[in-house]
Amino acid sequence: MVIAVEREGRSAIARPSSVVDGVYDSIYHRLMSLEIAPGARIPIDVLARELTVSQTPVREALSRLEREGLVRKEHLIGYSAAPLWTRKQFEDLYAFRLLVEPEGARLAAVNMTPEALERLETSAADMGNGEAPVDRNTRYSRFARADAQFHDAILKIGGNEVIRSVLSNQHVHLHIFRLMFHTRVTQEALEEHENLLAAFRARDPQAAFDAMRIHIERSRDRLLSAFE
Questions:
Q1: 5, 29, 30, 142: which has the fewest C-beta neighbours closer than 10 Å?
Q2: Quick check: 15 pLDDT over 70?
């Protein structure tokens, strides 16, 4: 199905969104699994041939990925995969997360409603289903996206939009998961998310604060080996 849209006062025909979405998903999976190496150039014409599409949906997908911080665009050079975080960036980010995310979880427990809890339960279940037998690259990159959505949902329920917007703009979880392409990370994160959910079910603000703090500390400790 195509959709008519207005562009600069004239009627234009937009491609089906699924074309761009499919191209986006393919490039995203390659970036998250490091199949496209950090810092590597991303030739639009090569990708278009590999994906058997025109260059336009590739450009649109790369523009979306640029907004998420996974690719960079330089004048006269084009697109390249974003570099991995340095250890200093990583440590600074986790220090900030420990300052604000436990408080965000505490506020979420205070504000929790049955409807909000149901949404979190569904989000957590989606992450568990991500372990279904699909190829490892896809499973891992999907988990990274679901993890980001789970944490964002908690902060949204907490209601502090400053905390939420700052972390969202940093695209924290996508960059974290690029550091270590390892299934152990997903399984341990699932167990820690269940502890968070238990605190939310109990409407226990202190338990939620503590569970989030422990989750972030363990995530930091797991990923430190990426810099060794």
A1: 5
A2: no
Angle of CA points 69, 13, 79, to nearest 5°: 25
Calculate the CA dihedral of residues 185, 187, 192, 198 and round it to 10 degrees: 160
Q: Please tell me which residue, 161 or 34, carries the higher pLDDT value.
A: 161
Percentages helix, strand, coil for the chain, rounded to the nearest 5?
Answer: 70, 10, 20
Q: What is the pLDDT of residues 161-218, one digit of tens each?
A: 999 999 988 888 888 888 765 556 677 888 899 999 999 999 999 999 999 999 999 9
Is the distance from CB of 82 to CB of 70 less than 8 angstroms? yes
What is 190-209 written as a DSSP string?
HHHHHHHHHHHHTT-HHHHH
**Cβ pair 181, 223 in contact under 8 A:** no
User: Looking at residue 37, what DSSP letter applies?
Assistant: -
Does residue 156 have a pLDDT over 60? yes
Buried b (16+ CB within 10 A) or exposed e, 101-116: bbbbbbbbbeebeeeb
What's the CA dihedral at 85, 88, 93, 99 to 10 degrees? Answer: 170
Instruction: Note the pLDDT of residue 183.
Output: 53
CA-to-CA distance for 177 and 175, rounded, in angstroms?
6
